Amino acid sequence: MPATDPLSVTEALHARRSVRAFTDTPVDPALLSDIFAAAQRAPSGGNLQPWQATVVTGDRWAAVKDAVGARIAMGRDGYEPEYDIYPKGLTEPWEARRFGVGEALYGALGIPRDDKAGRIAQFVENYRGFGAPVMLFLHCSRIMGPPQWSDMGMWLQSVMLLLVEAGLASCPQECWAMYGKTVRAALGLEEGQILFTGLAIGYADKDAAVNRWQVPRAGLEEVIDWQGF
Ligand SMILES: Cc1cc2nc3c(=O)[nH]c(=O)nc-3n(C[C@H](O)[C@H](O)[C@H](O)COP(=O)(O)O)c2cc1C
Questions:
Q1: pLDDT (tens digit, 9 = 90+) per residue, 141-169?
Q2: Which of 18, 80, 185, 219 could pair with 171 in a Cys bridge, judged by C-beta atoms 3.0 to 4.6 Å apart?
């Protein structure tokens, strides 16, 4: 944990962002272990603690990248999605938010709309974990439903905030679920497990343009309905 005063929860919330360029500095597994131990305090309905994670580095991480790389080379035939990442026929206001973050990302990188190859190349960086030395794959039993998936999200955010407190950075990556079967096979996970997301973990490359922009959020008037105040 950091030598300086730890960040407040509010500071950590503001400091966290999805980092898409990492240095190759290795991550101390003891530090990760402390973070996972603290994240165990995340709440879950009925205290089920449905989250399960497989954390890889080195050869094991390279094996996942190689296996998924072979599927990517197959084009659309290589897809084996675990679930629909977005609802089919996404409507407003959600579609505008999804479109907006993509445009802002490519804008930060100076990749114009008509540079399809450039955009695909940036998307494929996902499957290198943006250079992160550690990848965490978050999965759970297939018997779990929406309430338990929300529990996984609470655990994930807990881990991400603790990483920030420790001076580390991360990027959640549900894109790995597009190749769920291959990821599960490379990790040795049984069929009864479903892959929710990856989480790239490492030290942020602070000079990278892709890390120097902040994604806006909707105003409170769009999300909070105050009643009886
Ligand atoms: C579960 C989950 C999965 C995500 N998957 C991806 C992904 O596959 N690739 C990516 O670049 N960003 C991914 N993101 C990052 C979102 O785009 C990002 O959280 C959102 O735009 C807000 O930006 P911020 O995290 O920097 O605040 C994911 C985020 C979450 C919570």
A1: 999 999 999 999 999 999 999 999 999 99
A2: 18
Assess whether pLDDT exceeds 70 at residue 2. Answer: no
* Strands of 169-173's sheet in order across: 52-57, 134-141, 193-202, 169-173
Residues with CB under 6 A from ligand 1: 17-18, 20, 101, 126, 171-175, 197, 215
* Sign, Cα dihedral of 69, 82, 214, 33: negative
Considering its fold, how many domains does the chain have in total?
Answer: 1
**pLDDT digits over 12-21, tens only?**
999 999 999 9
CATH of the domain at 37: 3.40.109.10
Pairing of strands 169-173, 193-202: antiparallel
| Secondary element (H or E) of residue 139 | strand 134-141
pLDDT above 90 (res 95): yes
For ligand 1, atom 5: residue with the closest CA: 173
Is 168 within the bounds of a domain? yes
Looking at the DSSP bridge assignments, the partners of residue 193 are 141
Q: Which atom of ligand 1 is nearest to the CA of 16?
A: 27
Cα gap 64→58, rounded to integer Å:
10
Helix/strand/coil for 68: helix
